[in-house]
């Protein structure tokens, strides 16, 4: 009988199963991710229920369910259906949009403190609204949406054009610098118009503070196509952003078209942030904080971060909105104020933990 030929160390015999040490880690990671996502879904369900039930008029959960699913509930049911359901839907859509946009922008610029303001998106939307009020005679939220979207898109194109026209192309540093320059320019234009037109200032300040109250179902029907398209574009570049995180040269070596990733991702982020800002105003810190929270929980893969961020973002926005309703009843603090109050401690903690590179 011939002697058995020894196999190299670490190579299992023919027919042997996989090494017992090879599979547990990915399995544990998938199980942990599934548990986190399930917890986020539960938190989102609670946030939605609180948003529908809590306000100047407290409504029992049983009445909320009856109003939403059976059209009953009397006067309380009408409050839920006509006022709080549109408000909650706006919170869901805007929170998810800002979280996805922030995730994409942080991946594109490889900048951990990037948010929808990094490419001038928020300032572009603000300038569009101010010009619409001052010179186009637009005085309704539905009218603001189009001008805010156009302003956000033009600002993003201008930032990319400035960065791309320089030697070496649109690198992350150049994108950030161009975004800061365009944002400063648009902010000065906005301030100049507001300083000379007091009536415009009175109307603009209610939009600028950031809120999801006072929006009706028609607003939802106007913005969901933009948000859907933006989400599809953002999700489509998730693997490209994973490759880009390794460096531009490495991404090209892996076969990724870096320019296409930046264009498609930038377009998706602009649609998401532009539509969100157009409807709710420039809400602070959601696009910055939520991606970091998601990475801490599920790792750095952009697909998982986008999935969890799309759940955490609405939880954060709806939670801030609910807290704003109950702090000084019967009055309300706008959600934009509350998100800033929540975001500042988070940013301080982020710096103290040295998660932002020097």
From TrEMBL:
InterPro entries: ABC_BtuC-like, ABC_transptr_permease_BtuC. The keyword Mitochondrion does not apply. Keywords: Cell membrane, Membrane, Transmembrane, Transmembrane helix, Transport. Residues 1-25 have a biased composition (Low complexity). It is a multi-pass membrane protein. PANTHER family: FE(3+) DICITRATE TRANSPORT SYSTEM PERMEASE PROTEIN FECC-RELATED, FERRIC ENTEROBACTIN TRANSPORT SYSTEM PERMEASE PROTEIN. Its main location: membrane. The chain crosses the membrane at residues 31-54, 88-105, 117-138, 144-163, 175-195, 223-247, 259-285, 305-328, 335-352. It is found in: Cell membrane. Belongs to the binding-protein-dependent transport system permease family. FecCD subfamily. Pfam families: FecCD. The keyword Metal-binding does not apply. This is Iron ABC transporter permease. Residues 1-26 are annotated as: Disordered.
